[in-house]
Structure formats: C-alpha cells, structure tokens
Amino acid sequence: MKRTFVIGALAVSFISVSAFANALEFPHIATTGYGEIQVKPDMAEFSVRVVQSQMDADQAKQSVDSVVDSFLNSLMSQGIEKHDIQSSNLHLSPQYHYPEKGKPELVGYRASRTVTVQVMELDKLNDYLDLALQSGINQVDSIELKVKDQGQYQQAARIAAIKDAQGKAASLAKGFEQKLGQVWRIEYRQPMNQPVVMRSMAMDSKMESSSYQDSVITIRDRVDVTYQIAK
C-alpha cells in the first residue's frame, strides 16, 4: 500500500491578537495535517439504461420492461445478489414534432428505465456489461470504481494526517526555540473522497479492462491541531 503525505498550509502565533474575536489568549502553534492513501479499486458500481421509442405507449413500456427483466435474470443467473441490484420505475414521455406552422404533432412515446448494479468482483465487470448489451441495454450512465473496506484506508489516512500535524508542530517549535506544550484543540474535517468515475458510454463501445484495473483511488484525511507553547 502506497502512502503519500501532502504538506499543506500552517500558521504560527506567539502573541494573541485582540482584533480577532476568536483569537487565543495564550502563545500557541496551530498546524494542519494532511494524509493520503492510494489504493487499487477492488469493486465497482455501474448504472445502465434502456431507452426505447414506440408509436404506442404500451408498446414502449413493454419493450423496456422486457429488456430490463432479461438483464435482471441474466445478472442473477451469474451470481449477482438481489440486494446488489436496483432498478428504477419506468419513465414514459410523449414525443412531439413541432412544424413551423400549426400545432405540435404526437409522433410516439419514449420509455426508459435505469438499472444500478454493485459488482463485488472487479474482474467480472466487463462480463456484466456484456450481459447488459446482450439483453438490449443501450446506454451506460456511469461506472464507479471503489474499495470494499474503505474504513481501514480512511483510518490509515487519518493517522498519516495526525503524524503530519505533529511533525509540523514539533519542527516549528524547535525552529523558533520554543517548547511544545499540550494539545489545546483538535478540529477534525474529513474530506469527501470521490470514487473513480467513468461516465456516459454507448453500449457498443468496448471498454478495456486495463482502463479500470490500473486505476488508483486516493483516500484523504485532514486534522487541525492547536498546541500551547510551554513556558
């Protein structure tokens, strides 16, 4: 597991500043620690959609429902658990032609449904996308690469952030020939970690497995610490 530490901004204050309402009334050192952990994804979540246009609303609905039912059955036959699949309700909308003159003309109905699948074995992602294509799914909305146990990596990033803050404080105190005192305040601000996302692909566009298996997810953490300066 590769660890990367990012050095961020820091502030040093030895004398309180009365101009600020929240200024501390004693000598102190304030630091911000950052931590990053880079990990390879081991799971994914993808959303696909089937869109059909028909002259008749019932035909459009039946066509879309048939594709979704076929895809769901194929997924479960391949071992995907039911709780790892979410399918949306049908969205049906009339389609009109707008001539330069005259009233809009109804030309049919557009129906669509979305299916979201959680993939616990990343090496099978392309197989499930192939199933979608074979079932009649015609749009990939998104593919998100994730890690199963993000908590352990978040904890590692947090420890890295704590060590980063401690190291900065110790270095500053030594540099200014001061003695570092007790921790006075800790503020924890966990960043929002974003998964690796691949969006909007046509189902006839084949995605190479290396495009996601070689990806890296960066998990970040941050902590703000204020130390007293010992007398």
Automatic annotation (TrEMBL):
<dbReference type="InterPro" id="IPR007497">
    <property type="entry name" value="SIMPL/DUF541"/>
</dbReference>
<dbReference type="Pfam" id="PF04402">
    <property type="entry name" value="SIMPL"/>
</dbReference>
<feature type="signal peptide">
    <location>
        <begin position="1"/>
        <end position="21"/>
    </location>
</feature>
<dbReference type="InterPro" id="IPR052022">
    <property type="entry name" value="26kDa_periplasmic_antigen"/>
</dbReference>
<keyword id="KW-0732">Signal</keyword>
<dbReference type="GO" id="GO:0006974">
    <property type="term" value="P:DNA damage response"/>
</dbReference>
<protein>
    <recommendedName>
        <fullName>Oxidative stress defense protein</fullName>
    </recommendedName>
</protein>
